[in-house]
Amino acid sequence: MMMTRGTSRVARLTTAGRLFSAVKGAAAESEKFPVMGVRWRSSLTLGEKEQVNGSSAAAAGGDNKREDGNKQVVASYWGIKGEEVKKEDGTPWKWNCFRPWETYQADLTIDLKKHHVPTTFLDKLAYWTVKSLRFPTDVFFQRRYGCRAMMLETVAAVPGMVGGMLLHCKSLRRFEHSGGWIKTLLDEAENERMHLMTFMEVSQPRWYERALVFTVQGVFFNAYFLAYLASPKLAHRVVGYLEEEAIHSYTEFLKELDKGTIENVPAPAIAIDYWRLPADSTLRDVVMVVRADEAHHRDVN
């Protein structure tokens, strides 16, 4: 019995030491990139990471090969080695922020004019709250739709995570099933985050826009958290009306692209892989699939 306890304690200490080393390595890596740190690296392809570091082996602190000869790659946020992922055709998967099984083809059959008419007090409160938030956004970004989309997605990715987290805790407290809502909301948050990863490639936010993201996200996260605790129905109504505004913004984005006011550049590679778009897709195609995603989130909420 004493031998078992001692062995277990040594195993725990060894595991803790490895975890500390991994976190310490990630922290040291972030010091090399003080502006955006490891988060910036997570959206790079593996080839780009090699250019940044000189070689991926140096970044991983080894030769990236196991004793059995299978190649490993740094695939997680903390820099912990994972198995190499490949596409269906056998070519290496180059993205760290999502995996091949998370990709899909967007359903573009959406109703752009669909609107939930506010009838109850909570509906009206949610509706006018969102409308009041749109005015300062219009004033600040005006027709800079690329940066506007980036800012919108940093906010839109919060509700799904907050709702999923609170429902997860509720399920644990009550020892009951969630009816699939936890996964639905977390998937929504992940999808909105991928919108952000895409528009990061399109727009180059200025320093004060980055500062605004910190401020808005901090305020919105806490406000939405409290709102969800008070009334989940109100919180979901807010998201529904936010998505309606997002559809409107992306529709205006498309109009500017069609007019030629905004250059219809080739679609970022990350968008082509995530939505399984044709190789010759453009920014307009990306905005179309993003708008479709927002419409589906609107209907869910």
UniProtKB/TrEMBL annotation:
The Enzyme Commission number assigned here is 1.10.3.11
Assigned keywords, A-Z: Electron transport, Iron, Membrane, Metal-binding, Mitochondrion, Mitochondrion inner membrane, Oxidoreductase, Respiratory chain, Transit peptide, Transmembrane, Transmembrane helix, Transport
Q: How does it sit in the membrane?
A: Multi-pass membrane protein
Q: Which InterPro entries match?
A: AOX, AOX_sf
Q: Which GO terms describe its biological process?
A: alternative respiration
Q: Which Gene Ontology cellular component terms are annotated?
A: mitochondrial inner membrane; respiratory chain complex
Q: What binding details are noted for the cofactor?
A: Binds 2 iron ions per subunit.
Subunit composition and interactions? Homodimer; disulfide-linked.
Family affiliation: Belongs to the alternative oxidase family.
Q: What is this protein called?
A: Ubiquinol oxidase
